[in-house]
Write a structure and sequence with these properties.
It contains seven helices and ten strands. The longest helix is centred in the C-terminal third of the chain and has 18 residues. The chain is globular, with a radius of gyration of 18 Å. The two termini are about 20 Å apart. Keywords: ATP-binding, Nucleotide-binding, Transport.
Length: about 230
């Protein structure tokens, strides 16, 4: 699925140069479930942005299914994101004036899916995350956990190959955290996704089959015996 070779990302802050990523080599097989953990500022979110084709490396190569993402035009990168990659973030990023079903449908608009099919697929995606009875509800009429379920349905409705989650439980209490993790793991198993998650939560990291730790832009990966 992913092959990273010598991936470096540098930012300039005044007179200083910061290596957010410092020569990362990483292989993520198709169907993998990888959790990325590390201190704030260590490079976790930067790495996720690279995997999501949201940013380009300063140096090195990021290959997705054999295609070097850094070599693609912005138009083609947008297409890769739209077709192949689903995103779930800490903030739910729902449109407050749209219903749950309409929010999920927004992911299909760039793909040119016709309105009838959009409605059907959105309803199906919401049912798969346990919100089949909430199609017409606005975000303000749902709990935080329910809103994050809508965000998950929106990420999955386009049937991506990859699901990237950046602190998806960060705004939720412990009971809602466990509920959302159950949904994400069930979707990974049922859909055969490659699932990559950034988290600060050690209780989540302990359950991951593979755990990557990133500090000062360098990464180590180990099989997780406790998973």
């Amino acid at each position: 699925m992913y092959e990273l070779s010598g991936v470096t990302k540098r930012y300039t802050r005044g007179k200083d140069t910061v290596n957010a990523l410092d020569g990362i080599d990483l292989t993520i097989p198709d169907g993998d479930r990888l959790v990325i953990q590390g201190p704030t500022g260590g490079g976790k979110s930067t790495l996720l942005q690279m995997l999501g084709a949201l940013d380009r490396p300063t140096a090195g190569r990021i290959s997705l299914d054999g295609t070097d993402l850094a070599s693609l035009s912005e138009t083609r990168l947008t297409r890769v994101r739209s077709e192949n990659i689903g995103f779930v973030f800490q903030s739910f990023n729902l449109i407050p004036t749209l219903t749950a079903q309409e929010n999920v449908e927004t992911a299909l608009v760039p793909l040119g899916v016709k309105s009838k099919e959009r409605r059907e697929r959105a309803a199906e995606a919401l049912a798969s995350v346990g919100l089949g009875e909430r199609l017409a509800h606005l975000p303000s009429e749902m709990s935080g956990g329910q809103q994050q379920r809508v965000a998950i349905a929106r990420a999955l409705v386009k049937r991506p190959k990859v699901l990237l989650a950046d602190e998806p439980t960060g705004n939720l209490d412990e009971s809602m955290r466990d509920e959302i993790m159950d949904v994400l793991e069930r979707m990974w198993q049922e859909l055969g996704l490659t699932y990559i998650m950034v988290t600060h939560d050690s209780s989540i990291a302990r359950k991951a089959p593979r755990l990557a730790t990133i500090r000062k832009g360098r990464i180590t990966v180990k099989e997780n015996a406790q998973a």
